[in-house]
Design goal:
The chain is mostly helical. It has 19 helices and no strands. It is elongated.
Amino acid sequence: MGEQGTKDVLKYLHSIGYKGTSSAITCAAENGHHEVVKYLIELGYRVEEWTITCAAENGHLEVVKYLHELGYRGKEWTITCAAINGHLDVVKYLHELGYRGKEWTITCAAINGHLEVVKYLHSIRYRGEEWTINYAAENGHLEVVKYLIELGYRVEEWTITCAAENGHLEVVKYLIELGYRIEEWTITCYKGKKDTVYCAAMNDYLEVVKYLIELGYECDKWIINDAERKGKNAEQLLKVLIDLHSIGYKGTEKAIFHAKLAGYLEAFEYLHSIGYRYS
C-alpha cells in the first residue's frame, strides 16, 4: 500500500470515529512510517517510552530524529538495540546526542557480524567483553574475528571449539594459521578443549571434521556413538561416519543401537554392512 496509502486509510478511519490503540504510534515508528508517526502525534497519540527504541533497532533514522526533535528520549539500551542490528547511522546519531552503550554493546554487534559498527564503537573508545571474540567466531564472522585480534583481543580456550561446532571452517582455519593449536587437552595455545573434533562431528560438519583430522587432531572413542545419537542431518551424518571409519575410528556396540533409535536408516544399514550388530 505504501506509507501515503496507509496515512490516507488512517485519516479516513479517524474521520468516521475510529481510534487506534495506545501502541499505534509505536507500531508506525517500528516500521519506519515517518508521515504516519507525524499524523498520529498531531492527533494527540502518546509516544510510549519504547517508541524511539523500536525505531532505532529497525534502523529508521528519520523517525528517530523527528521524535528527538520533539523532545522525546529513548531508553538506556536504545543504542545497543541499534548496534545489534547493524544500524551504524542510528548508532552515530544517538552517540552524538549523548546516548551511551553498555559493556555488551560491541558484543551485540559482533555476534551479528556488524564489522563497521564494531569499528565505530572502538573508535569512540568502547571495548567489548572478554568473550566478544568467541561470539564472533561461534557465528562465523571471520572479518570481525580478524579485526578483534588485530586490536589485541585474547583468543579464549574455547574459541576454535565455538567455531568448529557451528561449522565455520574458515574461522577455524584462520585461527589455526595464527598458531592456535589443539593438543591432548587443548584447542589453542591458550589451553582449550579436547572435544573440538567431537563438537564438529555432533553437528554433522563434515568439512570441519576432515580438516581437523587432516591436521592430526584426534577425537575420543565415543565419537561415532554420539554422532549417531546427536547428529542433526541424516545424509551428512552418513558421510561423517564413513570418513571416521575410513581413518580407523570405531564405535562401540551401542553405535548401531543409537542409529536405530534416532531413525537414521541409512546410517543403521551402513553400520550393519561393516559388521555392527543390532540386538
